[in-house]
Amino acid sequence: xEFYPDGAFAMDLPNDQAAKAFMKENGLExxxxxxxxxxxxxxxxxxxxxxxxxxxxxxxxxxxIKAYLTRILHHKRxxxxxxxxxxxxxxxxxxxxxxxxxxxxxxxxxxxxxDGDTLKNEDPKEYLYMAIADREPAEAAAILLDYRxxxxxxxxxxxxxAYDMQLDKISEEYPEISLHHQLANINQLLYxxxxxxxxxxxxxxxxxxxxxxxxxxxxxxKELALKALAGGLSxxxxxxxxxxxxxxxxxVFEEAEAIVWELKPLGNARYQLTTSExxxxxxxxxxxxxxxxxxxxPLPAETE
Length: 304
Prior knowledge:
The protein has 304 residues and is an alpha+beta fold.
């Protein structure tokens, strides 16, 4: 990289009219150019008149930035056309397999249910429903949250969420999307045990077929699946309104991994996608057969 001048990027003095004129004059299109903010340390140790000692830490930072920018500049993003057909969208009150028999038996212990280990030939789920219903709603929610999410939530957060779950759809509103899946599983269990006292959250299971026009061996990731399905979404859909730039390939779509709970290949370009009805439901689609231009996302920034 050669010498370049400093830029005053921190000044809060926007001039949209001048910016648009500059973009037009230089043939720049929105989302199709790179603005590089100066983030390196000036290597004064390379200037003899400075007599400054070599700074290993600053140099390592400079080299990392140089490598990252080089990776971006040489990265070629691809666009593929996908043809997609949705065969079925199912709304579920309870996600099959969300809880195992072992989960039920362990939870019976945590709810102090006597003789849970003796239920060899009986379904422990029904007994768990009774054990849950014997507790106060917030207390029962806290036990389930501690069992499933104690690795991610502290005691205070668990206590607050346990209370809030009775009033709102926390599995849809909680800011950490990566926790939505397990929060929904917990909510659905509480909804059943308390006969509707908790909000009713649902799961969407979408069966679809999709194929790219070229590169037929391309692995369909969760991100690509959402981008392929985006071609059939109405402009009213929450997914399209919140993640328009991500679906268009103009922003890194890291949230796709958490939004899609499961993407199961069924063979012959057929797939089954599971997510919250909050993100995708039958009402969100105005087409069931469509084409989509799927643009690869920009490279994410590297972190140590």
